[in-house]
Specification:
With about 250 residues, the chain is mainly alpha-helical. It has eight helices and two strands; from the N terminus they run ααββαααααα.
Length: about 250
């Protein structure tokens, strides 16, 4: 699994890169087909990873797959890697499958749109960040996906940037999400202060011994993480950006 699981987020990222660089002049109307093929490939690989994980039975609680150290400062390390367990595999399959359906629908919907290549640059980029979010093996890597999804939401909601209402809607979504992101950042800082790690596998090991049940610290951390989710998923009171998201094209 280690040798191909990295392709699951990389395929849509490559589609976004190619459409962004060559979409307007070379790929043009085929940009949607390229993006759709990439995400269908991600879905097939997600299913393959799911089947391998189930058949192996060696990692009932999940497995860490690390590729290289991204940041190393004394004892603090952030590796580039993925944490694959049952939940991650389900979400990888759901994200890639739903994205594939939307992409295929969008090929017809956006066929006559002059910015078709730009649209199919943003959409696979969004999917790349979403897959990174659900596959991450640490909170910092998850946060990169988290922020990337927010950036792509801004780009897609404000897709018709020459229309004031669309540009304003994209800006509104971006700003409201920053409130939630602030909570997420504070939660990460608090977790590191208490546990000296931000990797999910190590957090699972040390958290039960460091946090007393119903302690103030773990309650505050949980609420701050929930604040982040509240902003990203448009829950009360940070729901105000979601109606404005209708300013983007229907597939958005």
């Amino acid at each position: 699994m280690k040798y191909f699981v990295w392709l699951i987020p990389i395929l849509p990222a490559l589609a976004a890169l190619l459409n962004g660089l060559f979409g307007e002049k070379i790929i043009r109307r085929k940009a949607g087909h390229l993006a759709s093929a990439a995400i269908i490939g991600s879905f097939i690989l997600s299913l393959a990873a799911f089947l391998l994980f189930v058949q192996s039975g060696d990692h009932p609680s999940g497995m860490d797959i690390e590729y290289y150290a991204w940041m190393t400062v004394e004892d603090f390390q952030i590796p580039i890697g993925f944490y694959i367990d049952q939940l991650a595999l389900v979400m990888m399959s759901v994200v890639s499958f739903v994205s594939a359906v939307i992409f295929i629908y969008a090929v017809g919907y956006m066929r006559d749109d002059p910015g078709c290549a730009r649209f199919f640059t943003y959409m696979p980029l969004f999917t790349f960040f979403m897959l990174l979010l659900v596959m991450a093996d640490s909170l910092p890597i998850l946060f990169i996906g988290w922020e990337g999804v927010g950036l792509c939401s801004y780009l897609l909601i404000g897709y018709y940037y020459d229309r004031d209402y669309a540009a304003d809607a994209g800006t509104k979504a971006f700003l409201v999400n920053r409130i939630g992101d602030f909570g997420f950042l504070l939660a990460m800082l608090m977790l590191y202060c208490y546990t000296e790690t931000l990797q999910f596998s190590r957090l699972s090991d040390v958290a039960p011994t460091l946090f007393a049940q119903n302690s103030t610290a773990i309650t505050v951390i949980t609420l701050l993480l929930f604040l982040g989710a509240t902003g990203k998923s448009a829950q009360v009171p940070l729901y105000v950006w979601l109606p404005d998201a209708m300013a983007g094209p229907t597939p958005v």
